[in-house]
């Protein structure tokens, strides 16, 4: 019996059609420093601008969007998940002050549906274009038997550059620095296993309309991750450190950029409705919420006091609500979270109560 690749479940023709559908969107992210076009074995970037750096350091990050893809698949909406991917990857390198140079993506699926793959990549490309970052390469892999026909996962990687003496981080943080919180656009791309479990246990379908949200729960959960790239780069010369609030919540991530011997005391804030809905529906303990979800804050900036109001104003002009959320001080040895995710850092203490929970 003759068995073809197509009979094994892989349709190379569908892959080619997907490339044709996404080609235009990807090309729009390419500036004059991109050599060649879409479809090569490797993307090429003219890196001559690095010659102007005294000591350029390359920054790199890789990530996915977790089980948020399950909601996109359930609702058959695939053009927003790409921005989530860009936000998760690129804004991790921006934290150190690095300007993104390029991004690549990887999509694994059970069956290549050209229109679906093109929607995903168009979303990635649109987000890349909005932050002037070329989508320089990608791969779509068909994995029949490993993934269902309507299942897929996405991942990406980015590379950026920063001058060695301009790297942001714990070494710059000082007592008296102000902690500026930048609002998230929603749950972003972390904690969806908890969220999906809460909905499952309570029998909520993603199409359920929630009056408190003014939309369906599924549409709310698919709101894309806010991109902080442009505003963070614009403010880099006024900032000592950034913290991207992703998996693990605010305190655990902020502790990673706190120097040993220092403590950030952060006041709890007004929590957006989606977090209250999940908390109430699942009777989720506050400790679990704090350790899992961003609760309305997607990025933090630690800045000298004299720059605090200016940073808030720049964020507001960029359409990102921001506020003074706390202050850095010498560690008093009291109760606090100290160090996280393998980093032996300083401490973070959350004070007060959340409005809205």
Automatic annotation (TrEMBL):
Query: CDD domains of this UniProt entry?
Result: PurM
Which residue intervals define the domain PurM-like C-terminal in the entry? 174-335
Q: Keywords on this record? A: ATP-binding, Cytoplasm, Ligase, Nucleotide-binding, Purine biosynthesis
Q: Which PANTHER family match?
A: TRIFUNCTIONAL PURINE BIOSYNTHETIC PROTEIN ADENOSINE-3, TRIFUNCTIONAL PURINE BIOSYNTHETIC PROTEIN ADENOSINE-3-RELATED
**GO molecular-function annotation terms?**
phosphoribosylformylglycinamidine cyclo-ligase activity
Q: Which domain of life is it from?
A: Bacteria
NCBIfam families xref list: purM
Kindly tell me the pathway this chain contributes to.
Purine metabolism; IMP biosynthesis via de novo pathway; 5-amino-1-(5-phospho-D-ribosyl)imidazole from N(2)-formyl-N(1)-(5-phospho-D-ribosyl)glycinamide: step 2/2
Pfam families linked: AIRS (PF00586), AIRS_C (PF02769)
**E.C. numbers:** 6.3.3.1
Entry protein name:
Phosphoribosylformylglycinamidine cyclo-ligase
Task: Quote the InterPro entries the UniProt record gives.
Answer: PurM-like_C_dom, PurM-like_C_sf, PurM-like_N, PurM-like_N_sf, PurM_cligase
What family does this chain come from, according to its entry?
Answer: Belongs to the AIR synthase family.
Q: Which reaction does it catalyse?
A: 2-formamido-N(1)-(5-O-phospho-beta-D-ribosyl)acetamidine + ATP = 5-amino-1-(5-phospho-beta-D-ribosyl)imidazole + ADP + phosphate + H(+)
Where is it chiefly localized?
Answer: cytoplasm
Gene coding for it = purM
The entry's localization annotation reads: Cytoplasm
Native species: Flaviflexus equikiangi
Q: Where is the PurM-like N-terminal domain?
A: 58-162
């Amino acid at each position: 019996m003759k068995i073809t690749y197509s009979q094994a479940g892989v349709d190379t023709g569908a892959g080619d059609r997907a490339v044709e559908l996404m080609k235009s969107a990807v090309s729009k992210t390419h500036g004059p420093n991109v050599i060649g076009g879409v479809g090569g074995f490797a993307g090429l970037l003219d890196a001559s601008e690095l010659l102007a750096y005294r000591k350029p350091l390359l920054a790199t990050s890789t990530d996915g969007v977790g089980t948020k893809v399950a909601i996109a698949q359930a609702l058959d909406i695939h053009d927003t998940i790409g921005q989530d991917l860009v936000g998760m990857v690129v804004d991790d390198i921006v934290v150190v002050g690095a300007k993104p140079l390029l991004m690549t993506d990887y999509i694994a699926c059970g069956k290549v549906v050209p229109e679906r793959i093109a929607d995903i990549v168009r979303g990635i490309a649109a987000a890349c274009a909005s932050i002037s970052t070329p989508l320089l390469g990608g791969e779509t892999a068909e994995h029949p038997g490993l993934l269902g026909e309507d299942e897929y996962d996405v991942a990406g990687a980015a590379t950026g550059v920063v001058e060695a003496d301009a790297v942001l981080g714990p070494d710059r943080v000082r007592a008296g620095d102000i902690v500026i919180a930048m609002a998230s656009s929603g749950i972003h791309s972390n904690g969806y296993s908890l969220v999906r479990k809460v909905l499952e246990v309570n029998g909520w379908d993603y199409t359920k309309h929630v009056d408190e949200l003014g939309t369906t729960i599924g549409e709310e959960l698919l709101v894309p991750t806010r991109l902080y790239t442009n505003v963070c780069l614009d403010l880099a010369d006024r900032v000592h450190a950034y913290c991207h609030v992703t998996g693990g919540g605010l305190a655990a991530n902020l502790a990673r950029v706190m120097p040993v011997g220092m403590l950030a005391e952060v006041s709890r804030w007004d929590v957006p409705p989606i977090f209250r809905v999940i908390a109430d529906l699942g009777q989720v303990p506050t400790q679990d919420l704090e350790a899992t979800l961003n609760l309305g804050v997607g990025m933090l900036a630690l800045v000298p006091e004299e720059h605090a109001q200016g940073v808030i104003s720049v964020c507001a002009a960029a359409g990102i609500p921001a506020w003074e959320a706390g202050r850095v001080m010498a560690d008093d040895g009291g109760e606090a979270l100290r160090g996280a995710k393998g980093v032996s850092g300083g401490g973070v203490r959350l004070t007060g109560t959340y409005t809205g929970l």
